[in-house]
Design brief:
By secondary structure, the protein is an alpha/beta fold. The chain has 3 domains: 281 residues, Purple Acid Phosphatase, chain A, domain 2; 85 residues; 43 residues, no CATH class. It is built from 11 helices and 17 strands. α1 packs parallel to α2 and α7 runs parallel beside α8. The chain binds manganese (II) ion (MN).
């Protein structure tokens, strides 16, 4: 029997509307160490986006390397396999690979050989030892594939075709290793990509446009792969009866990711096949609050609802809930932020950007094909007519006289200064 834990999209070092996620990440890693202790998997697979940016802060690097050291100390036989995602700097992530190998930690930032000329298939394959003391799994540890990483293929979409070719070659090499060394082993793949049919949840995933397509097909992963451990989409989801899965991120990385539970996956293999899958729910350390809970509300209503936040217990800033505010705007209001900040003065929350939408914007967000304004004749447009048209579009009313007056004053000053 072979037991593995699949996780992805940690995004260590993320700055969330200017606030650190270090407390949540540290709590997640402590929890993960407890899970490892309790379930004793043979291997941990981390499918990309270890860090949020290519230059992660030192605190994030410290969290990551401390986690590796603690996991190793706690369970000396745990095999760790880490691949780079689209947020990671592959070569930077891989820089300490030789050092980490001495601790049986495999880290892959780039799929290429030292010359950068072709796929280093031998390096991408990681045999995993199971209960029997023999190889019970063979992992294809494929980092995120950039256009320069894939084999050259003559096709309409060389990147997309190259990704398929890379997986084709890696799978063939894994089969060969299995046949010659461990015929009973399960073939397992790690990938970081957007699969066709996958559900995006947020801007924090950063869209991948591969050639002209946004996603790669399920047939990239042939049926003899017992399990495909994916990263990139932050909401957990599965394909083909759970043979192909996104574990999802362990914490919500944007407000759009706050409405569901986050998890890591525990999988058991025997006789080369996936036998069972268990979801381990990650406890939420910091709440993400939205006022109003659904939709957008006018400012007076929002201010009233904020009053209830005064009852929140006082907390140090790193433990305070994050707050998103959705205001239904009836006109431009330069005092909006000030009024909200004042209402929150004694509240133990971290204010994230305030979103303001007009009724017109809400309608156009709901309809898939917004009405495009007719092409304008530039010769008859004046600054005032542009302002009026935009104001009417947003607020379905004429701009107030003082706003047009203010525009005229600015224009006159501009003329004087030329
Ligand atoms: Mn990600």
């Amino acid at each position: 029997m072979l037991k593995i834990l699949h996780t992805a999209d940690w995004h260590l070092g993320q700055s969330f509307h200017g606030f650190s996620r270090e407390t949540e990440h540290a709590a997640f890693l402590d929890w993960l160490l407890q899970q490892l202790q309790q379930h004793r998997p043979h291997a941990l697979l981390l499918a990309g986006d270890v860090f949020d940016t290519i230059h992660p802060p030192a605190t994030a690097q410290k969290l990551f390397y401390s986690f590796l050291a603690r996991a190793r100390a706690q369970q000396p036989d745990l095999q760790l396999v880490v691949t780079a995602g689209n947020h990671d700097a592959g070569s930077r992530l891989e820089a300490p690979a030789r050092l980490l190998e001495t601790f049986d930690i495999r880290i892959l930032g780039t799929p290429l050989n030292a010359d950068g000329t072709e796929l280093d298939l031998a390096r991408l394959l990681v045999p995993l030892t199971g209960d029997s003391g023999r190889t019970e799994g063979i992992v294809i540890a494929m980092p995120f594939l950039r256009p320069a990483d894939v084999p050259p293929v003559v096709a309409d979409d060389p990147w997309l075709a190259g990704i398929r070719e890379a997986w084709h070659q890696a799978t063939a090499a894994a089969r060969q290793m299995k046949d010659s060394t461990a015929p009973q082993a399960a073939l397992i793949a790690i990938g970081h990509c957007h699969l066709l049919g996958g559900q995006e949840t947020s801007e924090s995933e950063r869209r991948l446009i591969v050639g002209h397509a946004e996603a790669i097909g399920l047939d990239t992963f042939p049926a003899d792969l017992a399990y495909v451990a994916l990263g990139h989409l932050h909401r957990a989801q599965s394909f083909e009866q759970g043979r192909i899965r996104y574990s999802g991120s362990p914490i919500p990385l944007s407000f759009t990711e706050s409405g569901y539970q986050h998890q890591v996956l525990l999988l058991e293999f025997s006789e080369g096949q996936l036998q069972s899958t268990q979801s381990l729910t990650v406890p939420r350390t910091i709440p993400l609050l939205t006022v109003p809970e659904r939709g957008f509300a006018p400012l007076p209503q929002v201010l009233q609802q904020l009053e209830s936040l005064r009852n929140l217990p006082a907390l140090p800033i790193e433990l305070q809930p994050f707050l998103r505010i959705n205001v239904l705007a009836t006109g431009p209001d330069p005092t909006r932020r000030q009024q909200i900040e004042q209402a929150l003065q004694h509240c133990s929350v971290r204010l994230c950007p305030i979103q303001a939408q007009t009724a017109v914007e809400q309608q156009s967000a709901d309809s898939p094909e917004p009405d495009r304004p007719a092409t304008a004749d530039l010769s008859v447009l004046t600054p005032a007519s542009v302002l009026t048209r935009e104001y009417q579009r947003l607020y379905a009313a004429d701009p107030p006289a003082e706003l047009l007056q203010a525009l005229q004053e600015i224009l006159q000053q501009e003329e004087l200064s030329v």
